[in-house]
Amino acid sequence: MPKIRGYQSIVENRVYAKKAQDLGDLVLIELLLLRKYHLPSKDEVVDYITYRSLKAGKDDLGCLIRSLPLRVQHDLLESDTDIVRFLKEQSLVDDESADVLELKIGTLPVRPGREYALPSSADFYYRALDNPSYTPIGLRATIGLEVMDDTIQPLDSETLDIDDSRQRTNIINYIQRAVDKVRRTFDQHVDEIEDVSLLVLHKHAFASVAAINKYAFIVDGFPIYTRKGTIPENPNLN
After folding, report:
1. pLDDT band at 138 (very low <50, low <70, confident <90, very high)
2. pLDDT average, residue stretch 110-138
3. Residue 140 and residue 192: Cα distance in Å, rounded?
4. Is the distance from CB of 36 to CB of 194 less than 8 angstroms?
5. What pLDDT sits at residue 160?
6. Would you tell me how many other CB atoms lie within 10 Å of the CB of residue 4?
7. Bridge partners of 152?
8. Does position 48 have pLDDT exceeding 90, yes or no?
9. What are the C-alpha distances in Å from 202 to residues 36, 39, 47, 48, 119?
10. Distance CA 116, CA 132 (A)
11. Contact 150, 191 (CB under 8 A)
């Protein structure tokens, strides 16, 4: 099992922690959360939506697809040109896909002593770092590192969105040290990191299909797939 130097493995190949600061009544724990995924292209998102139109299922995406007007469902099944164009316009992904190692860095205050027993659920830590009330102290950042030929590419610090220019150098150095440790540990062990590709694909597909309810209209029995914010004049909604 790969070990990141200076960190305790909380969830194998997924969650690592170390003591960062003693605050008296609390101990500040520094966390490193790892997961990898294939970031789909626009075409891959549309293909998945078409597939799920055939096998809708009972999850949130399946229920959303079944809630659409029958004519819209028909257009999804047939990969109608207009709806394909619309779905690509709504998609937040690029034309090209990428393989990504996501590194989430953050701090979590916990009580010392007997209560200093960290949960063994990775979901707990993702929820904690996404909830500002859990982490009132310290840095939180999510970094996507590209993976090529099972090798983790270096961090391009210019892509980091850091507002505070006075602290930018210190924050980048902090993140860079964490990234370097992860790269040294997992550069030849990327396959051991949890893969959440299907979850990411599902999320992007759901967002694109949800846009149909928001921006598409049925006019005289035919769907009109509009651009964001464009509403047909005098639409006859059925």
Report:
1. low
2. 73
3. 24
4. yes
5. 72
6. 18
7. 147
8. yes
9. 15, 11, 12, 8, 27
10. 21
11. yes
